[in-house]
């Protein structure tokens, strides 16, 4: 009888899966390839368990999708216009992977790397990754750590740290897609609240064309909770990208004790609250999920998951005038970004 060969990652080594558990019965799984969140199963008040993360059926399937499902992305999450920026009079070109632009760190970004496991137990897993000077065009020898932990009160806590030996823009985030209904429904029926007074309009390629815009009297006003479908595609800023795919500058201004956003399942039986030290949240309504390999149903459809990515505003290396901390990491400093997703059964 032939022994089945285990699936191997592109580097020829097996994928390493880590499982986090708490006493409440919540279970989170991850893999070291891309430091990727695979699954987040939340125990409900009625005794059922609800899968809240979009994901693939096997680790290998993650190689055949372009949605960055659950992955850790960097060095610079979101977009860098025209794949270049200027620092001290010198133009630095980074590797483009979305036309002439760079998205989520380039064609071989951190989502396509094996992160080394430093330690792991049922409460946490700590990954580390080294990136060489010039990797995807970015300057400096770079080392990052990503600590994912599961708390007793049902929070996925994510802590990114990084150091570099040359000045470099750094913007790490996790690209999880959530569906609090259990991944089978349209997330536009979720309710959403984002504590932000302004958002960043973008063109059809997701590139900012002007400065921040007040959310007042627009479809981007989520300061009071509303169903995502209520104002969907109401304005040209949405139509350009088939829905919401925009950064919101948060009122919390990096205070991780203040909520950045709340999301509610369409049946109101599950709430998720987001906290972050990052200045902005990118709200993406899953506009281009069509055809993405799915865990149980073949492929996902558009709008089946939403992302709330904690980060600097997109294209920040080209916009030092924006009202947020500097995205450039200096050799003597340490990058630190903390985000928590808190699941609260109702």
Averaged pLDDT: 96
Alpha-beta content class: mainly beta
Q: Tell me, what's the shape? A: globular
Distance between the termini: 50 Å
Helix content: under 10%
Largest sheet: 9 strands, antiparallel
Protein name: Aldose 1-epimerase
Keywords: Carbohydrate metabolism, Isomerase
Pathway: Carbohydrate metabolism; hexose metabolism
Family: Belongs to the aldose epimerase family.
Task: Please provide a written account of the structure.
This protein is mostly beta strands and 346 residues long. It is built from 1 helix and 26 strands. It has one helix spanning 236-239, and strands at 17-21, 27-31, 36-43, 49-51, 72-73, 79-80, 84-87, 90-93, 102-103, 116-120, 124-131, 142-150, 155-164, 168-169, 173-174, 191-194, 196-199, 213-214, 226-227, 245-250, 259-264, 270-276, 280-284, 307-311, 328-329, 335-345. The strands form 7 sheets. A 9-stranded antiparallel sheet has the order 10-11-12-13-26-22-21-16-19, with no helix packed on it. It is globular and about 60 Å long. The model has no long low-confidence stretch (mean pLDDT 96).
Topology:
Elements: E1 17-21, E2 27-31, E3 36-43, E4 49-51, E5 72-73, E6 79-80, E7 84-87, E8 90-93, E9 102-103, E10 116-120, E11 124-131, E12 142-150, E13 155-164, E14 168-169, E15 173-174, E16 191-194, E17 196-199, E18 213-214, E19 226-227, H1 236-239, E20 245-250, E21 259-264, E22 270-276, E23 280-284, E24 307-311, E25 328-329, E26 335-345
Antiparallel strand pairs: 1-2, 2-3, 3-4, 5-15, 6-9, 7-8, 10-11, 11-12, 12-13, 13-26, 14-25, 16-19, 16-21, 17-18, 17-20, 20-23, 21-22, 22-26, 23-24
Organism: Cedecea colo
EC number: 5.1.3.3
Protein name: Aldose 1-epimerase
């Amino acid at each position: 009888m032939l022994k089945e060969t285990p699936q191997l990652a592109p580097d020829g080594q097996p994928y390493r899966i880590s499982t986090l558990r708490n006493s409440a019965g919540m279970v989170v799984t991850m893999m070291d390839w891309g430091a990727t969140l695979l699954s987040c199963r939340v125990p409900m008040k009625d005794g059922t368990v609800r899968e809240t993360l979009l994901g693939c059926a096997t680790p290998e399937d993650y190689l055949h999708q372009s949605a960055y499902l659950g992955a850790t992305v960097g060095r610079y999450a979101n977009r860098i216009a025209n794949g270049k920026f200027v620092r001290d009079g010198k133009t630095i070109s980074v590797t483009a992977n979305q036309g002439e632009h760079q998205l989520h760190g380039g064609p071989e970004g951190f989502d396509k790397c094996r992160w080394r496991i430093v330690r792991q137990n049922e409460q946490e897993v700590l990954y580390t990754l080294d990136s060489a000077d010039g990797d995807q065009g970015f300057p400096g020898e770079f080392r990052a750590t990503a600590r994912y932990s599961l708390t007793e009160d049902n929070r996925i806590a994510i802590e990114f740290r990084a150091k570099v030996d040359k000045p470099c823009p750094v913007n790490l985030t996790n690209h999880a897609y959530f569906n609090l209904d259990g991944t089978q429904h349209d997330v536009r029926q979720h309710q959403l609240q984002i504590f932000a007074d302004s958002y960043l309009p973008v063109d059809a390629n997701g590139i900012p064309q002007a400065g921040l815009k007040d959310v007042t009297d627009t479809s981007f006003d989520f300061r009071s909770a509303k169903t995502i479908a209520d104002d969907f595609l109401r304005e040209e800023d949405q139509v350009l990208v088939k829905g919401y795919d925009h950064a919101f500058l948060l009122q919390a201004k990096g205070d991780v004790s203040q909520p950045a956003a709340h999301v509610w399942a369409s049946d109101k039986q599950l709430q998720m609250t987001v906290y972050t030290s990052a200045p902005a949240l990118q709200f993406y309504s899953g506009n281009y999920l069509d055809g993405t390999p799915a865990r149980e149903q073949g492929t996902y459809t558009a709008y089946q998951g939403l992302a709330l990515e904690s980060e600097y505003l997109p294209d920040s290396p080209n916009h030092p005038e924006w009202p947020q901390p500097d995205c450039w990491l200096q050799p003597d400093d340490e990058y630190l970004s903390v985000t928590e997703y808190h699941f609260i059964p109702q």
